[in-house]
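Tutorial handout. Part one gives the primary structure; part two gives the three-dimensional structure as tokens.
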Amino acid sequence: MLVKAVSFRLESELPVQAKFLLEDFRLAVNSAIRAGLQTRATSRNALCKSVYKDFRTEHPGMYAQHLVSVFEVAASALKNHRKKVRKGQVGRIPYVHRLFMKTENQAYTLDRANGVIDLPIRAGCHVELKLVLSEYHRVFLNDASFSLGSLTLFADRVVIAFRTTELRPYIPESVVSLDTNERSLDGVFVSEGKGTPVKALFPQVAAIQQRHHGRRKRLQKKKSHDRRTSRRLCKREGKREHDRVECRMHQVANAVIDFAEENKAAIVLEDLKGVFKPREDKALNRRLSMWPRRKLHDFIEYKAQWRGVTVLKVDPRNSSRKCPKCGRLQDSRKGTEFACECGWHLDRHINASLNLLQTAVSKEMVGGLRFDPGALQHDVMMILYDPEKGARSEPNGASCVEAAA
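Part two.
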């Protein structure tokens, strides 16, 4: 089952009854968290059995189904709290600050044609929420194969989960292997025994991150006498950075998935979990921690599930040091080209993608694929994503010109 959370803006201000519901829901969640710590409940069912009757008395005006959702949210917060305790991280008792409420699909109705939600508050009291619809929203509302899931209501928007059955992946006829780098995805596309280098560029991401990092540093220095204002302004800068980076990551992931689907190709990515270790260079650690490699991989993986594209994750260790022709390990940290004693030389990023491809083929056959590195077409380069044709350039430090500088 595939689940997609779609955010809708509200056409008008939230009704007063709904605002009271958000406040009651937050109060109930915090009370349920404290009750769960006292009773040592480890699941929603255990929490519901132990305190449901008391909560029905304390919150008589809340719809019963919303109260069950309260226990679900509280159980999730308690689960995260127990994880931190097991890891030895000293954490405070969880507390929900933000106004929101969550409910399941049995507790609301949605008019898909007009985009109107009928949400019960209590017995005899319902509110209607008019949603702002776009072509993107119509894709989910007009398709009957998407069933409704949970609804999460905030003060300014509604998030609805749509569910559908997972597509059966097609049988790959080719493969695209991608090496993830700070400013691009570099790889090789193999079809009918021939390989072609491919590249998806996103140099703007590093420029955006560097610019917003510098802004936060200046704000912290300028507002050092007022921590509250400093946190608020830095949070705003972080939100802008997150939105701009995420927009570009979505575009890169869409370009990769479109290319793979068009050529009926499987995608080979690096399994980067546990690969990066802290280093002595503080600036390098900051760059690596800001590098959105995991976000990009997550986008590619979940979009591939929706499109029926096969994604293989392989161990990337020594992929940049290994010669794909003879198997020797060489030091490739200097320069942009990998050179081996056997005479093999190639761009080190493309070379790493060849090693990832060989690992994937030996690990899990892709349509009986066989590929000789010597068949690589060195004089051809396919561009999967060009930033000049994607997101708009930003003169404030996120443009292609400044990124290249």
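Part three, for discussion. Confidence is low (pLDDT under 50) at residues 397-405. The two ends are 45 Å apart (CA to CA).
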